[in-house]
Design goal:
Elements (H helix, E strand, L loop, with lengths): L4 H4 L21 H11 L4 E6 L13 H19 L5 E6 L19 H12 L4 E6 L1 H6 L7 H11 L6 E7 L4 H10 L3 H12 L5 E7 L3
Length: 216
């Protein structure tokens, strides 16, 4: 369910929760999504609370304290309205992949952005599943066994008593035709896939393969 901040709250203080909210391409209102899921017995999952590539232009991301205040207000509003209807919440998404707006924010450069976000989520989503999610290339393509960046980031957070309930790994297999054979031989083959999964299993958390996209 799309909780991208810029499209969910393009105008400050007026989130597009209601199903009759103004339409935005690829970003249907939350109530409309949940109505569909509940009608057809589909388990919804939220995506995503802290994601610095999709921030409204009314957020001053050069001011860390101001960004944190506004993010907390966002977390609180989402929890009050949906914590009992959506069990799984992606708290942080693509910390290694900020570009455009995200890469230029001071808040994105904070060392504790993961820890801070999950502590905030635990405050407002205390009975929900809290999920971290990361992009394909940072999970599978750049795998380096125990030295893998994403693995070490999660391991550090857990060592600091951060409550991460589930590990999300994107699987967008986008490749030009001339690259496909090399990638399948070196990365997207059963041995490598199991090597990656075996490493992350050491974190003792459920693993979700997320955002799965395969070329035709």
């Amino acid at each position: 369910v799309p909780f991208y901040w810029d499209a969910l709250e393009p105008e400050q203080g007026k989130p597009r929760f209601d199903k009759n909210s103004p339409k935005i391409y690829r970003r249907p209102p939350i109530d409309l999504c949940l109505e569909y899921c509940e009608k057809y017995g589909i388990t919804p999952k939220e995506h995503c609370l802290t994601y610095m590539n999709f921030v409204p232009n009314w957020v001053d991301t050069q001011d860390v304290n101001d960004t944190k205040r506004k993010l907390e207000k966002r977390y609180k509003a989402c929890a009050e309205r949906y914590a009992d209807r959506i069990h799984g919440w992606e708290v942080v998404n693509e910390l290694f992949c900020a570009d455009g707006h995200g890469a230029n924010t001071i808040f994105f450069r904070e060392d504790d952005i993961l820890e801070w976000s999950f502590k905030l989520a635990e405050k407002y989503f205390y009975s929900n599943e809290l999920i971290v999610n990361e992009a394909t290339k940072k999970v599978w393509d750049s795998f380096a066994w125990g030295r893998s960046q994403y693995y070490q980031m999660i391991e550090r957070a857990l060592a600091h008593n951060v409550r991460i309930d589930c590990v999300g790994m994107q699987y967008h297999v986008f490749r030009l035709p001339e690259e496909e054979r090399r990638c399948h031989e070196t990365i997207y083959n059963p041995k490598m896939l199991f090597d990656v999964l075996d490493l992350y299993a050491k974190l003792d958390r459920p693993i979700q393969i997320t955002e799965t996209t395969l070329p035709a």
